[in-house]
Amino acid sequence: MSQARFTSCIPLPLDQKKLVNVIEKAKDWALMHGVGMRDRKHFNKDVIQIAPFALLPSPFPRAEFEKAVELQPVLNELMHKVAHDDEFLMGTLQNALQVDEFTANLYDIWMKVRNEEIRQSLSLGLFRSDYLMQQADKYKIKQVEFNTIATSFGAISSRLPAMTRYILRQLGHGDLVKNMPENHALSGLCAGIISAYDLFGVPSAVVLFVVEEVSYNICDQRFHEFEISEKRPDIMIHRMTLNEIYEETQLNDKKQLMIEGSPVAVVYYRSGYEPAQYPSSKEWEARLRVERSTAIKCPSIHYQLAGTKKVQQALAAPGVLEKFMGDSAATNRVRDIFTGLYSLDFDESGERAVEMALADAEKFVLKPQREGGGNNMYGAEVREALLRMRHSRERAAYILMERILPPLVPGYVIRPGGPLPPPVVDIVSELGIYGVIIGTKEKVYQNCQVGHVLRSKLADANEGGVAAGLGALDSPYLV
Ligand code: ADP
Ligand code: MG
Ligand code: MG
């Protein structure tokens, strides 16, 4: 099936002179409002350059956008329940962790903490559910994945409506801004951190951001710090790598995680989601120490495990949603956003999935238990990998997913150092909806949807990570 097309919000191409002029304005707007990143190729801590962005907002069906927004609290609660269902998590991850060392390490920490006295039963989730649109009889959102750790771009994307409104006005299309939704992801996510801090209830406590050695996505992270500091001048925020946590924090006799004499109320991970972020046993030790402490973790280890691809696949199996959600209208709405998800375990259904994928590899994506983009396989790679792993236990570390073919839309992608004027290119958009949840196994204190991000990539790229330099930040234009 060939990919369908949307028309862009204004006729393209734009007059070249006008285009160049408005791009200069837009880039300056971006730089001056922190729609920026650090350069990976020529790293210099003192320099921030524009984050790649789509000049014009991309069309997105209003009803599907609203559906995604409405479903977020339902999904938050579902994932919260999944994370607290030990038996389900253990059963689901069992085969994958035999062959995937990273998942096994996370699982080990979970087991260790589970077997001790639980010091903190509250978890904080700053989640993001991601969608691509699929054409059936009409366009429908399909869930790409559900992220439970280090969900990014909530802050920068909160700036985008204003930036896009400015651009549209400069192009003489100010009337169109009425079709662009507001976005309060940043204040919503930070309110989640502040609520967790208050639930911790120790006045001198601090918040700890766990960060990478080098934070390329520094604007997005710092905006959270600035927002929290503005709303709550009493809250001090520390940034530390896992290695620094190992070297510089301690657990006191009350199992409080201590930094320079202050207990940590909330640990917010912006790192720790991929193997390279744990180069030695020290980082794993640090993770275990945090997990053992009284601090409220965002996410706790079981939240992170609930966010694995394997769990996503297990939720799509017959009867599983009903187990968590009952037989309700909401259950059907959630099932409707799922696309084909298949286990590759060594059993009958796993064998069937392998056969199916080998017969038509283009229709599928092969996904390992990884986060952060750039790990999946597509098309010919799916075939090669499955042929190679067919009789190897390694296969169970992957899931197979039906490939979603989103509609194309023409647009301009603006990158640092990109061509001026840029060509009109076909892009596809992925919507992310942010959710906040705070609760224990027994009680949910807060559960809400807080905002969105639209990320677009060139239509012929398999993946479009913005941080990886392949994607671009975008805004939905509701149609
Ligand atoms: P990660 O946790 O690494 O971000 P994702 O599941 O989001 O993993 O996959 C990364 C990217 O791959 C997505 O942003 C999307 O562009 C593409 N992708 C993932 N699953 C599918 C799918 N089923 N169909 C089409 N593209 C997909
Ligand atoms: Mg992810
Ligand atoms: Mg993703």
From TrEMBL:
Residues involved in Mg(2+) binding: E145, N147, E371
Cellular component, GO, one term: cytosol
| Classification lineage | Eukaryota, Metazoa, Ecdysozoa, Arthropoda, Hexapoda
**Where along this sequence does the record place binding of substrate?**
R128, Q221, R455
Supply one GO molecular-function term.
glutathione binding
User: Mind listing the UniProt keywords for this protein, alphabetically?
Assistant: ATP-binding, Glutathione biosynthesis, Ligase, Magnesium, Metal-binding, Nucleotide-binding
Annotated ATP binding lies at 145, 309, 367-376, 378, 401-404, 430, 457, 463
Annotated protein name in UniProt: Glutathione synthetase
PANTHER family per the record?
GLUTATHIONE SYNTHETASE
Organism expressing this protein natively: Arctia plantaginis (Wood tiger moth)
Q: How is the cofactor bound?
A: Binds 1 Mg(2+) ion per subunit.
Q: What family does the Swiss-Prot or TrEMBL record give for this protein?
A: Belongs to the eukaryotic GSH synthase family.
**InterPro entries in alphabetical order:** Glutathione_synthase, Glutathione_synthase_a-hlx, Glutathione_synthase_C_euk, Glutathione_synthase_N_euk, GSH-S_sub-bd_sf, GSH_synth_subst-bd, PreATP-grasp_dom_sf
Catalytic activity reads: gamma-L-glutamyl-L-cysteine + glycine + ATP = glutathione + ADP + phosphate + H(+); gamma-L-glutamyl-(2S)-2-aminobutanoate + glycine + ATP = ophthalmate + ADP + phosphate + H(+)
Secretion signal span: none
Q: Which residues form the Glutathione synthase substrate-binding domain?
A: 205-306
What role does this protein play? Answer: Catalyzes the production of glutathione from gamma-glutamylcysteine and glycine in an ATP-dependent manner. Glutathione (gamma-glutamylcysteinylglycine, GSH) is the most abundant intracellular thiol in living aerobic cells and is required for numerous processes including the protection of cells against oxidative damage, amino acid transport, the detoxification of foreign compounds, the maintenance of protein sulfhydryl groups in a reduced state and acts as a cofactor for a number of enzymes. Participates in ophthalmate biosynthesis in hepatocytes.
Q: What is its EC number?
A: 6.3.2.3
Q: How does it assemble?
A: Homodimer.
Q: What class of enzyme is it?
A: ligase
Q: Which domain of life is it from?
A: Eukaryota
In Pfam terms, one family for this protein is GSH_synthase
